[in-house]
Every structure is written in structure tokens, then in C-alpha cells.
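ping. complex inputs:
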Amino acid sequence: MSADAGIAQRSFTHDRHLVGMALFIASESTFFLGIVVAYIVLRDQGMATAKTQLDVGRTAIFSLLLFSSSATMAVASARRDRLWLAATALLGAAFLTGQGLEYARLLRAGIRPGTELFGTAFFTLTGLHGLHVLVGLVLLGALFLAATLRPRRIGPVAWESIGLYWHFVDSVWLVVFTVVYLGTLVG
Amino acid sequence: MTSSLEPIVVLSLLVGVIAALIFVGVIVALVLFAVRYRAGRGGSAQQIYGSQRLEIAWTAAPVIVLAVVFALSVVTLERIGRGATFGSLEPPLHVTVIGHQWWFEFRYPGGAVTANEAHIPIGVPIELELRSADVIHAFWVPELGPKKDMIPGQTNVLRLFTARPGIFGGACSEFCGVEHAWMRIQIVAESHRDFDQWLSSQAAARVAPSGPAADGEQVFLASVCVSCHAIRGTSASAAIGPDLTHVGSRATIAGGVLTNDTAAMRSWLADPQGYKPGSQMPRVSLSDAALDALVTYLEGLK
Amino acid sequence: MTAGVPAVMRRPAFVTAGLLSTVDHKDIGVLYVLLGLVFFVLGGLEALLIRIQLATPGAHILDPETYDQIFTMHGTTMIFLMAIPLLVGIANYMVPLMIGAEDVAFPRLNALSFWLTLFGGLLLYWSFLAGGAPDAGWFAYAPLTEPAHAIGSGIDYYIFGLAVSGAGTIIAAINFAVTILLMRCPGMSVGRMPQFVWMVLITSVLILGAYPMLTSDLVMLLVDRQLGGRFFDPSGGGNATLWQHLFWLFGHPEVYIVILPAFGMISEIVPVFSGKPLFGYAYMAASGVAIGFLSFGVYAHHMFAVGLGDAQNAFFSLTSMLIAVPTGVKVFNWLATMWRGHVRLEVPMLFALGFIATFVIGGLTGVSLAVVPIDLYVEDTQYLVGHFHYVLFGGTVMASFAGLYYWFPKVTGRLLDRQLGLAHFWLTLAGVTLAFLPLHWLGIQGMPRRVWTYPAGLGWEWSNLVSTIGAFVLAAGTIALLANLIRSLRTGESAGDDPWDGFTLEWTTSSPPPAHNFDRPPVVRGRRPLWDRKHPDRMDPA
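pong. complex structure:
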């Protein structure tokens, strides 16, 4: 028995899992804020390398894939539809592949976290984001499995909270892409 | 102004008095209430929930007091901060200070380079340009007032001043590794004439040694000493350790861990790690005779 | 006699399936408090070693490298492994009871948060056996921690130990926040919840905003140390002060994280032992919120000597003075609560009064540090060490002691012995004064902090000796506490449900409470449900 007896369980402000996920996202946002601030503080030092080495166009395309995955996730969550969920995971995986290709290109050009400041800041910021995407893919996979094997146990809250996490991961990329990639166009 | 410490003392006394009054007030109330309202006879206390007037009063009063303190703080900073003249009409003397693990390098205009002990003229604002060769250090001489960090990759400026002669001890004030404790500073404030004399002798190359000291110079040049230490006038010009051109003129050695005399210098050279464990100074294995000659040489470098 | 012993301690063997698998907030609360007490002793032993080395000038009892590890571990232990677990433990046990809930929002995450905290602590202490503990101070300034200057893997253990235990703390914060926001019993609006619960809520928000700043700093340091990165290495283009900015954006809120719950406990204890409601409840809540907000805005007062600029320094000086205002409001309200009360000087109340006295001293020296020219003199000296020990020991630790004596009967069903409690109190008060007051004078005389020894003949000898004696007095007090805890568990006087004539929900259930806390979920109509029940003719206004 708790205070929310009688109050809609699935209301955003009243469900403990959604509030918990929102608070977790708030704390992770602060974590990314710290890394982004570091990147911005050190930006000028590495700008020359960033301008010549980063492929803004190609990364923009992969970014669009990631942003579309937020849309597919929203549909999946609203309809509790596993097909849309799978599409989200696919788009997310495609984004990570794009990141992998970008990393490979930079490593071939001799840029590593240890070779110069741009390498340090770039790989740390995008790498941490990539890790969060990977965790997201795992969550999507788990949700898919659970919805397949135990559909009655998975309520809308599970879809919504995982959806929240996925939207968060996409929002972080919006910031990172702007600061790191679009930043080379103005800096 | 007698020194750059003075405005800080004045402000501290004022803040101290205010703080003491507040503290006494709180303690008196605390003890008074604990004693006067001690539960004894039966019954229960009157249930009082609050008072908006009191809340406003004890919010507003501290704000006013703090506003006054803040204003005084700004005024004090003007008197000792960037560009302060300390009431002197003299142009400032610029000295570059570089922090190392675990010693201070002083570089004066005109080529004088010394370590850990610096002389300054009285009545002249001293502008220190603070840098670091490795980790973060801080420069602080308590009797001259404020401190400032010495940060690698950055130059900080600190102005100090004294109108009276004296010897002022200080210390590194940012933990900088294993021998942070023995990174002490000695400032000698003296008359213009004495200072000018000191400065020109420090700027000069070493006087060529004779007798046992000359043997000592040979020992120095042949040993590992030259890989870290410079003695201007010889071929030794490494800048990893302190400049030793006039080491004999300093009151202390090794960042203040020992007074500078023949016996102490000998002990230091024989076993640096025994006095300043962790310092970068290696143990140099020399014969007794060589060591004696070296000590005579170094002590003679006035 | 097992009745009255906390469930977690009734298991037949020390480490059993029950202990490892419990998800009950009461058990987890006790585990956290035990963890905090163990590390309090370890951190205290480290303190004694420091004080023995500093008792006389030029001592060689500890070599400098060992000394640097000891003072680093002392600070790191006391903040992360003593203060946080003690407060999280007390909050874990008490918050659900005080809001009439059955448990916290996420019981399994609750257990996880404890094990992560413990594991992080073990990882940190493993460093002693694995080549050396971290030795760059609890705030580990770069570039001293960079590979070029740090020898060995101590700093890596610092990074992982804090990251892991920090994750536990973040999880606990999420748990508390959701619990307090969503699981209050019917009738308990936020305006009616106990002050301790208010403070835990604000603290949880602070943790979520501050700890990730530390995590980001630690991750970047790890990249520098293990992947050749250059975040904090100026010779590689990095920025040495970047570490400090991010660290203090964590570090300053952190000290409020460890003091706000302490404030909350005092706000529970003083009213009960004055027989009156807390004076200015709404202002106490609001001042807590104000302190929470401001705590992020004062952070660079740790960096006045860095050379950020006059305007920046002035800003942080102003905010640091401002934060004293809501803090003062709290002190005045506690005093007003005692005014015209029926003051009972039981041991919890004595510790609460001791807290007020010592915290006010620490708070006033804190205001002096907000004055930039004064700070530029006393920063990084023993004066600062004196200041923060007054607010941390006189503040957080004393309040935690008050809370322990207050709630021990609820947890165990037994009272702690009063005589031993009095001895503990007076030894603590005397010890804090002897150990930490002389440090202010030493700082003014020019003694820096974090020095493994100091020169003779500067007049620093007596103050150092007195401080060392004070440290041993504190140790004696701690022994009195431990003896009291152990003895009272077995033979303490039976407490009953409500030994202190309390006001709040935890005293309406049995001591210790049943597994589900309340036989029927309570319904409240005011801030002091038990007072209302006991005094229906003088209930609090609606």
C-alpha cells in the first residue's frame, strides 16, 4: 500500500520506474556535461586536427539514422510493437557501425587518445557516448526478448522507461555532434 | 603601508571580532536555554510554531553584516591585488619564480639566477611572475601576506611589499609530491644599496677558485653534478636542479632542510636521501678527499 | 536473547545467504552503518598515525611517501567510506519509517548500492597491498596524478574505488528521491514530512548533480593515465586547472551532501528533547533548498589562489558568504526551538547541542575563508584543516552520533547506556577542541597543510603536540562508543516503542519494527502524527 494507490500508476510523475529512469538520465546528463565542458575548454588546441580529419558529412548521415531511431522508438513504445523496436535497434546498430568506420579511419591516420589532445578528447567523448548506445542496444534486446517470451509481464512502463533512455542517448549525440562536428565549421 | 600583509591583518581582526561576537551570542543562548528551560516540574512546554518577523530579522541582519564584510574585502584586495603600489612611488621590481619539485628558482632582470633564497629591496613593490616546471606549487611568505598558485602552462602574478628590512620564511603551499614539506622559501628584505650589491654579485659568474676549492671545481665538473646543476663561469649549464653559482651565499640549502655551513653541506652531499627522502638529488659516491674539496668549493661560491 | 537485535545480525553465521541476499531497507541500513563505523575506525587509525608523525618537528616515524598515502587515505576514507555510508545507512533505515512506507522504491537496487559501496572501499584499500595507496591527497590535483609525476598504481585504485562506490551512492540517491516523492503515506504532503526526510531529498538531488562531475573527472584522468591522454597535462596541450573545476563542482556540493542530513537529524532531535515543535518548519525546509542550490554556485572558493580573475573571485566570494545566511537561519531556529521548551539533556540532545556549538565555529571560520584576502593567507594551511574538521567532525560526525543514540533503541529495542554515552560526549567535545582548535593558530603562524614534517624553532611545537593529544582523546571517545554499542546490544535496557516521547511515525511501530514496518499503513493529518495522537486536545494546526 503506498501513496499512489488510487492514482494512475502509469502517469509519468507517479510511476516509480519512470521517475527513477528520469533521475538516472539526469545524473548521466551531468556526467556528459563534465566531458563536454572538458572538450569545449580544450577545443582550440585540437581544432586544426579536427577540421582536417573529421568527416562531417558522412557522420551527419549516420546521425540522421540515430535520430530516426528515436522516432521509431516512440512508435514502438506507443504501440508496444516489436517490429518497430527491431527497427530502432537496427538503426542504432547502423549508427555504431558508422562510428566504427570513423574510428578506423582516424586510427589509420595515426590519431589515437594518446597521440595528441584532439585524439584524447574526441575518442573519450564519442567513445563514452558509443558505450551508452551499446548499453541501449542491450536494453532494446532485453525488451524484445521479454516482450516475446513473457508479453503479459511487460507493461507500458517498461517500454516507456527504456524509450526514455534511448531518447536520452540520442539527445546526447545531438549535443556531441554539434560541439564536435558542427563546431569545426565555425571554430 | 608597512607590508602587503598589513591590510589582511586589519581585515582579519575585524572579521574575527564579528565572528567572536556571533559565536559568544550563540553559545550564551545555547547554554542559557539548556539551563533555564531544563525540564523539571511536570507539564509540557508551550507549543510555539514560529515567527515570520524573527525569520526576516535573522535573515536580514546577516545579509547586512556580510555585505559590509564583502565591501571591505573588495577594498582590501584593491590595496594588495593586481597593480598594487602599496603606497610606494617606486616602479615594481619584476622577478620570475619557477616552481620545481622541490625547490624554487628565482630569475632576476640582469641575469641573476638563484634558488630558494631571494633578496628584495624594501619600499619597492615586488612583482613575481609565477610559473611551474612540473606540477602545481604555490608561493607563500606569510609575513608578506597573500599566496598564489604556480601552475604549469600558466603564468600567475603576485605582488608583495615590505617597508622594513628583515628575513621572512615561507613555504610551498600546494601539495606537490613527496617533499612538499621541504620546499621552503627565504626572503631577505634589505636596503636598496645592500640589494643592489647582492643582485650584481648574484648576476656575476663565479670567481675562479684557487687552492683546494679549485680541486673541488674539478670534482664538480667530473661528477654527475653537471647533469643537473649550473655554475655560471664553468661549462656546467644544466637547469634541472638549482643554479649553484652563488650557493655559498645562501643561508639554507636543500629547500630549507639544513642550514648552510660546511658540516651541513658535507652531510647533505654524503646522504641527500637521509635528509630529504624522495628528492631528486642522487647519492654521489666520492672519496672523502674529493668530498671535502667539493664542499670547500661550494661553500666558497659566495 | 535475540529479541531486539536487528534482523541482519540474528543470522547464525556472519556471512550467510540471508545477509548476502537481504533487500530489506532496515537490514541494508544497518549494513551501511556498520560499514561506516568500520571505516571510521580505519580512518581514525590513519589520523592517529598522522598526528603521531606531526607531534614533534623533524620526526621520522613515517617516511614522506608513506605519510602521503596515509593522509590521502584518511581523507578519502572519512568522506567516501565513513560519512556517506553512515548517513545513507541512517537514511535507509529511517526514511521509509518516517514517511509510513513499507520499504524504499527499489529494494534490490538498494542492496546493490550497498555492495557497490563496500566493493569500492575494498578496492581502494586493496591498493595498500598492491604497490601503494593513492598519495596525491583526497582531491588528487592534476598534474601530480598524471603518469609523468605519479609513481605506481595508487591513483588507479583511487579512480576505480571512487567510481564504484560513487555508483552505489548515485543509485542510493535515485532510490531515496523516488521513495520520498512517491511513497509517502496518505495525508503526508511534502509540507508535512519530517525535516530529516526533506534534507535527504535535497541531498539526493545534490548527489545526482555532483557525483557525475567527479565521475567525468575520474574517467578523463583514467584516459590520461592508461591511454596516454592529455586532458590535464599542459605539456600535451591539456589544462591543469580543468581537473580542479570539475572536482570542486563535485567537491563543494559533497560537503553539503554530508551536512544536510546532519542538519535534518538535529531538526528531529532538538524539538523532541525540547518538548516543542521545530521553530520555523517552512523556513527550515526552504533554507535547506537554498543551501542545495547555492552549493553549486560557490565551488571556486577552493580556487581563489589559482588566478581565475578578480571578477570570478568576487563572484564566488559573494556566493560563499550568501550560503552562510540560510545556514545561520537553521542555527537560530534550533535555538528558538529550545526557547521556552522543556529541555531534556539526554545523550542525543547533548550531541545535538555539541553539534551546534562546534558547527557554528566551523561555519564562522568558513565565512572568514569566503573573504578573499583572508583566504589568500590561510588557504592550504592548517587553518583550513581546522575549519573543515570542525564542520566535518563537529558537524557531520557529532550529528551522526546524535542520530545513533536517538535511533539505536528503535533499531535494536534497547537503549544505549547513558554513562558511557556521557563519557563519549565529553571526550568528543574535549577531543574536537584539543585536536582541531590549535590548527587554526598553526595556520595563522604559517604551517602549510599536507606536510610530512615541519622545521623546529618556528613556534609550531606546542600546538602540534596538543593537537596530537586531542586525537587520542577522540580515540578514547570512539572506544567508549564501540563499547557502548556492543554492550547495549546484549544487555541494554529495554526501550519500548517510544522511549524518547517522540513526534514522528517511526516511534508508532515496535522496536525493532516488523518486516513490513507498519501493521496498517498510517494516515497523517499534520507534521507530528504521534504528538497529535498523544495530545488530541493540543494537536498541531492543520
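Chains A and B do not touch (no CB pair under 8 Å).
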